[in-house]
Amino acid sequence: MIQGSYTPEAFESKWYEFWEKNKSFKPKKGAKESFSIVIPPPNVTGSLHMGHALQHCIIDVIIRRKRMQGYETLWLPGTDHAGIITQLLVENELEDKNLTRQQLGREKFVDEVWKWKEDSGNRISAQMKTLGVSCDWSRERFTMDKGLSDAVLKVFVDLYDRDLIYKGKRIINWDPELKSAVSDLEVNSSEEDGFLWHIKYKIDDGKYLTIATTRPETLLGDTAVAVNPNDDRYRELIGKDVKVPIVNRRVKIIADDYVDQDFVEGCMKITPSHDFNDYKIGKKHNLEFISVLNLDGSIADRDFIPVHLRGLDRYEARKEILKELEKDELLIKEESYIIQIPRGDRSGIVLEPMVTNQWFVKTESLARKAIDAVKNEKTNFIPRNWEKTYFEWLNNIQDWCVSRQIWWGHRIPAWYSGDDIYVGMSEDDVRKKYNLDKNLKLTQDGDVLDTWFSSALWPFSTFGWPEETQDLKDFYPTALMVTGFDIIFFWVARMMMMGIEFMEEAPFKDILIHGLVRDSEGRK
Question: I need a surface site. Which of 17, 174, 310, 469 has the fewest CB within 10 A?
Answer without folding.
Answer: 17
